[in-house]
Amino acid sequence: MRHNKKVRHLGRTKSHREALLSNMANSLLLHKRIFTTVAKAKALRMYVEPIITKAKTDTTHSRRNVFALLRNKYAVQELFGPVADKTANRPGGYTRIIKTGFRQGDAAAVCFIELVDFNENMMSTPADKQPVKKTRRSRGKKSAAKAQESTAEEAKTEAAE
């Protein structure tokens, strides 16, 4: 039984898994959205969210800790720049996983993992959108009676003219 074992091994050795997660985290921070399998996305979420939390405090110590994990100065600059600015008041949950179906070759479950504050489509609130006028497809008894009355009134006005 694997009680209380939270590491997703992903069928790789420790060094291979660390390199994989580091590269995926770099891609996620630079591109804001990546396409991968669900298992890798869930492992990446556990890897990248503490890194984003560390980036909220812009100190030399936190930059060095993050660079030790990412090993990419451009990803570190992006993380401590726009990413840290947008996630400053968010208490966690910096990533979103959206399942997209299954890969054709091996039927693996695939998904998008993205940074929450960088998706413009999901950020728009319902108050920003124009209200959609709902129309009924079927007419009830009262609506049908009103429609008949209005046509009768129109016929009377046309006959009077």
UniProtKB/TrEMBL annotation:
Give the UniProt keywords, A-Z.
Ribonucleoprotein, Ribosomal protein
- Matches recorded under Pfam families: Ribosomal_L17
Q: Where is this region: Disordered?
A: 124-161
Query: What InterPro entries does the database record attribute to this sequence?
Result: Ribosomal_bL17, Ribosomal_bL17_CS, Ribosomal_bL17_sf
Give a yes or no for keyword Ribonucleoprotein in this entry.
Answer: yes
Q: Which domain of life is it from?
A: Bacteria
Q: Which SUPFAM superfamilies match?
A: Prokaryotic ribosomal protein L17
Secreted as UniProt keyword: no
Q: Where is the composition biased (Basic residues)?
A: 132-144
GO CC terms, sorted: ribosome
Regarding protein family, the annotation reads:
Belongs to the bacterial ribosomal protein bL17 family.
The record's section on PANTHER family has:
LARGE RIBOSOMAL SUBUNIT PROTEIN BL17M, RIBOSOMAL PROTEIN L17
Report quaternary structure and partners: Part of the 50S ribosomal subunit. Contacts protein L32.
What name does UniProt use for this protein? Large ribosomal subunit protein bL17
The organism named in the record is Falsiporphyromonas endometrii
The coding gene here is: rplQ
